[in-house]
């Protein structure tokens, strides 16, 4: 991998951050509670991703987890507290989760989910906001909200995009537990591998991303977000023309195209 200008390791209350060779690894670190969400974890994830998105020495972010589970959704103690919330308190609480998910989804850098274990409820949403999902064959996914009389409402925009409308319709209303193999079949998981090969596939994917132009990768990610589900009309065609013209004039594109042409 390309050398980084700086390395960093630090530990927060609910997660750990390690930056090396242009790759930042954000690790959920509540293993005894299957890395379930509480207000502190949501706050830390929001803050860390806001910071990483603006760093010049980071080009790829890996979202990982310690312990057996990737993320079990809402923490039980947090859920008990929410049971007595007023409507206004529930709205404010849900808004913080929505902000965290949006911050990760809109992060300009590519984000890879390293799913080593089960993801439930909000944990499925956490995987859905990532650009690439690499999962162990042992992992399972479950949108369990309906079992509790709830909705996967806050995560739904991202899960529906990642899983597709028909699959989302089924798994939202049944709360069935689906295997990583099934999640891979329906396109929610991009790379499926034995547990022992998880880091090998992660390393390969990071290396592939780092071989590309840093600015081009950011613009490719933004291109999909902006163009998805848009009508292919004159306005969209004009915007596509503008974007390719804009990037062709960048120093990165000029240098990379020159290098490529000189080799061929």
Describe the structure.
- It is a single chain.
- This protein is an alpha/beta fold and 264 residues long.
- It has two domains: 8-210, Alpha-Beta Complex (2-enoyl-CoA Hydratase, Chain A, domain 1), CATH 3.90.226.10; 214-263.
- 48% of the residues lie in helices and 16% in strands.
- It contains eleven helices and ten strands.
- It has helices spanning 39-52, 76-82, 87-105, 122-128, 156-163, 165-174, 180-185, 198-210, 214-227, 234-248, 251-263, and strands spanning 8-11, 15-20, 23-28, 60-65, 111-115, 119-120, 132-136, 140-142, 177-179, 191-193.
- The strands form two sheets. A seven-stranded mixed sheet has the order 1-2-3-4-5-7-10, with helices on both faces.
- Helix 1 (39-52) packs parallel to helix 3 and helix 5 crosses helix 6.
- The radius of gyration is 19 Å and the shape is globular.
- The two termini are 24 Å apart.
- The model is unreliable at 1-5 (pLDDT under 50).
């Amino acid at each position: 991998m390309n050398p980084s200008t700086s390395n960093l390791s630090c530990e927060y209350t609910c997660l750990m951050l390690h930056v090396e060779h242009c790759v930042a690894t954000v690790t959920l670190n509540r293993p005894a509670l299957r890395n379930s969400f509480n207000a502190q974890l949501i706050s830390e994830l929001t803050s860390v991703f806001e910071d990483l998105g603006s760093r010049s020495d980071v080009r790829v972010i890996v979202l990982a987890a310690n312990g057996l589970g990737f993320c079990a959704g809402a923490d039980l103690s947090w859920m008990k507290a929410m049971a007595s919330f007023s409507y206004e308190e529930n709205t404010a609480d849900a808004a913080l989760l929505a902000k965290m998910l949006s911050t990760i989804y809109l992060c300009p850098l590519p984000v890879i989910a390293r799913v080593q274990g089960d993801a439930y409820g909000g944990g499925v949403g956490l995987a859905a906001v990532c650009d690439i999902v690499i999962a162990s064959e042992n992992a399972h996914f479950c949108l369990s909200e309906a079992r509790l009389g709830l909705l996967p409402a806050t995560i739904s925009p991202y899960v529906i995009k990642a899983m597709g409308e028909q699959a989302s319709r089924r798994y939202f209303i049944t709360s069935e537990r689906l295997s990583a193999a099934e999640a891979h079949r329906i396109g929610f998981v991009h790379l499926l591998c034995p547990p022992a090969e998880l880091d090998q596939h992660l390393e390969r994917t990071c290396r592939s991303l780092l071989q590309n132009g840093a600015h081009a990768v950011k613009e490719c990610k933004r291109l999909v977000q902006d163009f998805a589900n848009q009508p292919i009309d004159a306005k969209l065609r004009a915007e596509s023309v503008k974007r390719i013209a804009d990037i062709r004039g960048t120093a990165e594109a000029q240098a990379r195209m020159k290098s490529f042409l000189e080799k061929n």
